[in-house]
Amino acid sequence: MKGKTLVALHYLVKRIDPSFTPHVMEYPLPPNFKMLQLETLDATKDPLHHLENYKALIHLQAVPNEIACKVFPTTLKGSTKVWFKKLKPSSMDSFAELSPPKIAFLFLVRRNLPLDFLWGAFFKNGDAAKFSIYIHSEPGFVFDETTTSSAFFYGRQLNNTIQVVWGESSMIEAERLLLEKALDDPANQRFVLLSDSCIPLYDFSYIYNAVMPSPKSFVDSFIDVKEHRYDPKMSPTIPEEKWRKGSQWVTLIRRHAELIVDDDSIFPVFSEFCKAFGLGSMFPWLTIQNHRNCIPDEHYVQTLLAMSGLEDELERRALTYTLWNQSAMRKETKSWHPIVFHYEDASPQEIKKIKVSCYAMFSPVSRSFKH
Fold first, then answer.
1. For residue 210, which phi and psi values (nearest 5 degrees)?
2. Class of residue 175 by CB neighbours under 10 A (exposed 0-12, middle 13-18, buried 19+)
3. Is the dihedral of CA 365, 369, 370, 371 positive or negative?
4. What is the β-pairing status of strands 222-223 and 314-315?
5. Domains of the chain
6. Which residues, other chains included, contact 299 with Cβ-Cβ below 8 Å and sequence gap of 6+?
7. What residues form DSSP beta bridges with 362?
8. What is the pTM of this model?
9. Single GO molecular-function term (predicted)?
10. Helix or strand holding residue 218 (H, E)
11. H/E element holding 103?
12. DSSP letter (8 states) at residue 88
């Protein structure tokens, strides 16, 4: 009986014009392969819904990618079959390529997400097949019904978080951990780094349609000539002419995210020679123990991409709006951090001004701003 099942499956596969490559279609079926229970698949409605159901079932058999691809066309009928036939023939060799590309939202937070109610509304109105959520919080902190008001964040924290100290390399190490985890999902094609103070300025569809078509990363990056943060001890690994500065809040294409995670030469130099000592921006040239005052998260990604010769692949602007000119709003203590917007600042006029002035998609607001 098992032999007849395999013959029938081979026949079904052969009858369908494959969108997968010959490598996939010629991959042999294992002798112990079990046909899926097709009656449990609703293959007459939304193709992506059917795809997710299929992925859940095929995963239980622990088969390789090639088998998952090869068997998938045999489950199609109705609208899903029409959808599949419209795909380019012999164009895919990975099952992940059938899924819509996703944006990975990477939250780098101190502890909880004080603005989770806003993000919950944002994700609720989005397409769940088009985004992923990852959170780096303090070690041991868990996002569940007792710590967040939005189910979108349940269990989304990393399991290997570290204690992050502002102005030290632990900040960029946490960013790398977020990227590493998000890269596990091949459908994640854009990576947006966010803080616990950020809010979206547009709905999900607008952001997805603006970010996804761009072949470039959105990285604020420029030559740092004023603040004297480059330490000559970084040479020759990091030459001064490749030293860059910019906003920490970047939006990356997958190739650049992989580069950051795979880096094993630039990061150690930053860990040793780029540290902040809290001396204030009035004295950026002062040194302590032969180190210059340096803020790693404002230089690492920009410098690494410059070192890799990839600056032509950047839109040199951030998608997160930050305001450093403190005289423009209220007089507050001068610090290393941008202005935090409070409730009274969040007028429609102010938000419109932010959107028009810099094409930002996210903005920081006060951590004390509650629903």
1. -90, -40
2. buried
3. negative
4. unpaired
5. 2-98 (no CATH), 102-317 (3.90.550)
6. 224, 229, 243, 244, 245, 246, 270, 274
7. 200, 320
8. 0.74
9. glycosyltransferase activity
10. strand 217-218
11. strand 102-108
12. P
Whole-angstrom distance, CA of residue 229 vs CA of residue 281: 11
Residue with tokens 């000559």: 232
CA distance 301 to 261: 11
Phi, psi of 165 (to 5 degrees): -120, 125
Closest CA to 168 of 301, 297, 336, 303: 297
pLDDT of residue 287 exceeding 70, the answer is: no
Over the stretch 229-272, which tens digit does the pLDDT of each residue have? 899 999 999 999 999 999 999 999 999 999 999 999 999 999 99
Q: How would DSSP label each residue in 277-340?
A: ----TT-TT-EETTEEB--GGGTHHHHHHHHTT-GGGEESS-SB-----GGGS------SSPPP
- Provide the residue type at 245 as one letter: K
- 119 vs 48, 96, 100, 194, 318, CA distance in Å? 24, 26, 21, 11, 20
340-347, Cβ contacts within 8 angstroms, sequence gap of 24 or more: 340/197, 340/364, 340/365, 340/366, 340/367, 341/365, 341/366, 342/366, 342/368, 342/369, 343/369
